[in-house]
């Protein structure tokens, strides 16, 4: 059966591959992010390649008013929602906490924590109304294992895990499922964003390691979404083969 899947942060990396894999599976998609032209490109690609409906809208998840207005409007126009993939997120900076930028910290908290709350809070009433749905939140191994120079990013991803657990408790009497996906090192533009556009420094993160690819994470998200009604996968942790904790990797 064709499902209605809402993915945030669908213009790049993991979110984009998640959108592609749901489209391949035959699900309709509601996609958002800030970059309009990237959303338009992806919509055209998915509609040309797969027989699915793709609605898109620009959204900055940090903007509470924008989320509160646009998300319900978009869901109503789309005809409802069965799966929310709360994927939009980022890291900014890699510095000892005592030297780190407060602006970077605020951006990460506003995006990864507050943005996720704003979106989930606006999507849940639709799921409560139908007594079903699946919220899939993008955490990270960084939320399990703090690593050097990443205190605030790690804290935001620990918050994602705890928020998922809390929402699962509060919706226990419904058929709504909540899952946290916790990937390790995934090769995407994530590091370029973290290093404020320094492509060379970003490339060094993935040098010498066979990093997880975004399509690997997308496969797992699809698997998680395809379980019988009685099965709720609460958490999935995915590491690269040569990765042991959040930032402990062996490089060749
Ligand atoms: N790559 C990794 O190693 C890794 C590991 C574990 C977890 N994660 C998590 O996976 C998620 C996706 O990251 P990625 O690796 O795929 O990075 P990415 O390629 O940089 O993608 C990030 C996505 O989030 C969107 N986004 C960022 N800020 C936003 C905002 N304020 N409002 C709306 N959308 C926003 C971006 O779209 P626009 O710029 O168009 O808005 C983009 O589509 C993040 O939550 C990240 O923390 C990544």
UniProtKB/TrEMBL annotation:
Pfam families: adh_short (PF00106). The keyword Oxidoreductase applies. InterPro entries: NAD(P)-bd_dom_sf (IPR036291), Sc_DH/Rdtase_CS (IPR020904), SDR_fam (IPR002347). It comes from the Bacteria. PROSITE patterns: ADH_SHORT. Keywords: Oxidoreductase. Gene3D superfamilies: NAD(P)-binding Rossmann-like Domain (3.40.50.720). Belongs to the short-chain dehydrogenases/reductases (SDR) family. This is SDR family NAD(P)-dependent oxidoreductase. The lineage of its organism: Bacteria, Bacillati, Bacillota, Negativicutes, Veillonellales.
């Amino acid at each position: 059966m064709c499902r209605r899947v809402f993915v945030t942060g669908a213009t790049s990396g993991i979110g984009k591959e998640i959108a592609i894999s749901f489209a391949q599976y035959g699900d309709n998609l509601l996609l958002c992010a800030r970059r309009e032209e990237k959303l338009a490109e992806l919509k055209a690609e998915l509609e040309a390649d797969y027989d699915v409906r793709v609605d898109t809208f620009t959204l900055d998840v940090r903007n509470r008013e924008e989320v509160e207005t646009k998300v319900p409007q978009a869901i109503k126009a789309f005809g409802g929602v069965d799966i929310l993939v709360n994927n939009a997120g980022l890291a900014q900076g890699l510095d000892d906490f005592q030297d780190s930028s407060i602006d970077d910290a605020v951006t990460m908290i506003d995006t990864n924590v507050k943005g996720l709350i704003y979106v989930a809070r606006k999507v849940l009433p639709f799921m409560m109304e139908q007594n079903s749905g699946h919220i899939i939140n993008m955490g990270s191994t960084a939320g399990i294992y703090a690593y050097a120079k990443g205190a605030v990013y790690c804290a935001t991803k620990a918050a994602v895990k705890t928020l998922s657990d809390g929402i699962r408790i509060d919706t226990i009497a419904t058929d709504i499922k909540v899952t946290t996906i916790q990937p390790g090192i995934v090769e995407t533009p994530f590091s370029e964003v973290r290093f404020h556009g320094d492509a060379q420094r970003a490339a060094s993160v993935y040098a010498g390691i066979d990093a997880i690819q975004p399509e690997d994470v997308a496969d797992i998200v699809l698997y998680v979404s395809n379980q019988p009604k009685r099965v709720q996968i609460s958490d999935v942790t995915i590491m690269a083969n040569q990765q042991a904790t959040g930032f402990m990797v062996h490089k060749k």
